[in-house]
Design goal:
This is 5,10-methylenetetrahydrofolate reductase. GO terms for molecular function: oxidoreductase activity. It comes from Frigidibacter mobilis. Keywords: Oxidoreductase. The chain is an alpha/beta fold. The chain has a single domain, classed as TIM Barrel. It is built from 12 helices and 8 strands. An 8-stranded parallel β-barrel has the order 1-2-3-4-5-6-7-8. Helix 7 links the parallel strand 6 and strand 7. Helix 8 packs antiparallel against helix 9. It is globular and about 45 Å long. The two termini are 26 Å apart.
């Protein structure tokens, strides 16, 4: 197998974007990962790869994906959606199997996208308090720069902010290495305002900003509406009105360049890394990231793993 040469082509990355993309992560599902012959042909060694656990996905499929990623030199980070876990015994079993079979050391804890909990868990806070993840290198939790009506039905962010304050305190009292990984969005200004608000509230958890990878406009619109993306959806809607661009892939260059410029001008800005949702395909996303400078793992992010 010919491994991918991570040298870029003659197209330069936008100013500041290469540094901003260093240490990016990417999300897969077992079924999408199965379509990749060898991740070493696509991703830099050591890349953190989240494994989405959708309701109904057998744990054996999740474990097989984690084992494969570990064997190919990546850092698997499986999702633990609280509302699909039936009981504490199941949680303990999953954690033990991930640790024993795939040397999993990192996890994303979240409420999950189902309305009715399968058992006793309905929030990431309960998972954190369970003690099941003691000894993990890193624990991530979900963030919503444009709000989450599943949590705050009135359109405010009161409950979400209360939860983030709780998670901040958990990180401080346990010395857990934590970060917030966000829903994807399409416009930099709401992200910057949200990150600045968190800082003003005293929430210092690093932010891994969710970004939708290159995809057809129709695909992005479908996922954005289904996932409850907020006002930044207007970026896609404006693009849809331009018939000259309707059939062209939508790329995240503008939002990432704007965020990279803001980070360069404000080094203390809370975004630590980029997390890609490869809605247009894993290969397409990986190729775009490399073309735009995301070829090297950031030592500060990966030295602990």
């Amino acid at each position: 197998m010919a491994l991918l040469n991570f040298r870029r082509d003659d197209k330069p990355a936008p100013s500041g974007l290469e540094a901003f993309l260093a240490g990016y992560s990417l999300e897969v599902m077992p079924r999408t990962a199965a379509g990749v012959d060898d991740f070493r042909a696509l991703l830099p060694a050591g890349t953190r790869v989240y494994i989405a656990h959708i309701e109904g996905t057998p744990i054996e499929d999740m474990l097989a994906t984690a084992r494969r990623l570990r064997a190919e030199g990546y850092e698997p980070m499986p999702h633990f959606p609280a509302r699909i876990i039936p009981d504490a015994a199941t949680l303990k079993d999953w954690v033990a199997r991930y640790r024993g079979e795939a040397d999993v050391r990192q996890a994303l804890l979240l409420g999950g996208g189902v309305n009715t909990p399968a058992g006793e868990f309905d929030s990431s806070m309960q998972l954190l308090e369970s003690g099941a993840f003691d000894g993990f290198d890193r624990l991530h939790v979900a963030g919503h720069p444009e709000g989450n009506r599943d949590i705050d039905a009135d359109g405010s962010d009161r409950m979400v902010m209360q939860a983030l304050h709780w998670k901040q305190q958990f990180a401080r009292r346990t010395d857990a290495k934590m970060a917030i990984v966000t829903q994807f969005c399409f416009e930099a200004a709401p992200v910057i305002a949200w990150a600045d608000r968190l800082a003003a509230e005293g929430i210092a958890l690093p932010i891994h900003i969710g970004i939708a990878g290159p995809a057809k406009l129709q695909t992005l619109l479908k996922f954005a509406i289904a996932c409850g993306v907020g006002p930044s959806l207007r970026v896609l809607q404006r693009r849809a009105r331009d018939v000259t661009k309707l059939l062209l892939p939508f790329e995240p260059t503008e939002i990432l360049s704007d965020l990279a410029s803001h980070k360069a001008a404000n080094p203390g800005f809370g975004i630590e890394a980029v997390h890609f949702f490869p809605l247009g395909g894993i290969r397409t996303n990986a190729a775009w990231a490399i073309q735009n400078g995301g070829a090297a793992a950031a030592p500060a992010l990966h030295k602990e793993v």
